[in-house]
Structure formats: structure tokens, C-alpha cells
Write a structure and sequence with these properties.
Helicase, Ruva Protein, domain 3; 9 strands; 17% strand; Rossmann fold
Length: 289
Amino acid sequence: MIGKLTSPSTIKYIMGKYDFKFSKGLGQNFLINEMVVQDIVDGADIDENDCVLEIGPGIGVMTYEMASRAKQVTAIEIDNYLLPVLDETLSAFDNVTIVNNDVLKVNLEELIQEHFNGQPPKVVANLPYYITTPIVMKLLEDELPISDIVVMVQKEVADRMMAKPSTKTYGALSVAVQYYSEPEIVTVVPPSSFMPQPKVSSSVIRLRVRKRDDLKLTDKKVFFNTIKDAFGKRRKTLLNCLSSGVLKISKDDLKLIFEASGIDGIRRGETLSIEEFATLSNEICKYIK
């Protein structure tokens, strides 16, 4: 009988029994802090009516807790060596399905339809930090039928996702995340909460996915290219950034665009709100083919 999954001794027992070794390539760090597990699941507000899509279940620490609360949990695990471990640690549940695949390669829209019968799931993930942001942005940009994303990220990345205009951490990631969702910090997690310990502090962030149309964008691609250009050279003015970026707009046209949008071209991108970026990009659309 396997003991508490957050216990280091249990993890060592599992590693010995299944000849499992932590993979640096997969960035594996298992939670050994029971309170953090509770905080994550509480932060996701999971109850018996919820479906959960978990990415990176590991040995099933969070999966176990979520399965005891949710209607259905489907977990995507890339590591073949963890499949027999999950079979044992989650054997008490009949509402858990493990999908052995790479989340960046699987068709998530089809998977969600197949496993949740059209109900938008909550996504919960504890992933290698080098791949967390690409996965979060894929989930958001693909506009999948999901209601929330609750994910463990480096604390500095969470701070950037939450950042407001005119702050040091505000950037393209801040605008993109806040365009697609309403972010909030669930909890801050010290390195001692993991085995093995990472070198950085972590934060659990909840992104409440929104289907926004309030910005009334003329062209979403132009909107995000405007953001990309505006933050491309943080110390330069909007006039200089937008005239030398991917949009390739002349300075003469930009002066007209700034006048029409009511935005001063000598401002820097980091001072603009999402609404101002929307206004600016809609005016830009009038000047590009």
C-alpha cells in the first residue's frame, strides 16, 4: 500500500519499486507540500460538477485530490515510466483517465470533446518551467473550450502575467494573458515544497478564461503585432518602435494614426493599457493593406 503521495519517503519508495528516476529533460519536480496541493485545488474551485484536464500529473499528487472532488479528470502524461505508477496511485478512482501523449502535439479540442462531452473543463498543470508559458499561450490563443487555467509557474513569470501598465514587469506577455483571461495569484510556493528542489520560487496563478468582444478589434493579428512592435525596443518611443517593426508603417502615417487614436507617439509601449492598444491597432488597420 503506497502512503501519502506528498511524502518524500513515499516518493523514494515509488522510485525504487518502479525503477523511476527524475528526468532533467522533462523538468520533473514533485510536490511534497500537502498544503500547496490543497491550495491549488481550492484555488481552482473544483467540485463534483467540474471536469478537469490535468497536464503533467507526475505520480498523481494533485490528480488524487482532484479526482476525489471532480466529476471527471483526464490527465495528459508524456513520460511512459509514470504510467504504471499512476495506475497504482489512482487505482481507487473510476473517474480518472490517463492519456499518454505530448500536450503540444495532441489535438486538445478533440480530446476535450471526447472526454468531457462538450463541457468546458478546468485546466490544472504543474509543468517544467521552460515549457509552461508556451503551453499556457497555446491554450489561450487556440481559444479552446476551457473555463479556467490553474498553473504553477516561476514567480517572476506570474508577476509578468499580472503586471499593470507603467510597471517594470509589464510587457507583451502581460497584455496577451490579460486579453484572454483574468489572472489572479492563488499562492506563492517556496523551492522547499518540491522534490528535487528547483532554484527559484514559484507561484500558482489562476487564469479565468474570457470570451471578450468588448475591445471590438478590427484585426486581432494587427492588434498583437502592434503589441509585439511596441515592446520590441522598450526604451524607444511608440513612433520609433512601430515604424521599424513588423508592421512597417511610415512615420508620416503613424503621426496621423496617433492623432486619430488620441495617443501620444512619444509614449512608450509599457505605458499603454489593453484598451489603448486596441484603439491604436484599429487605427493602424486603416493604413495597412
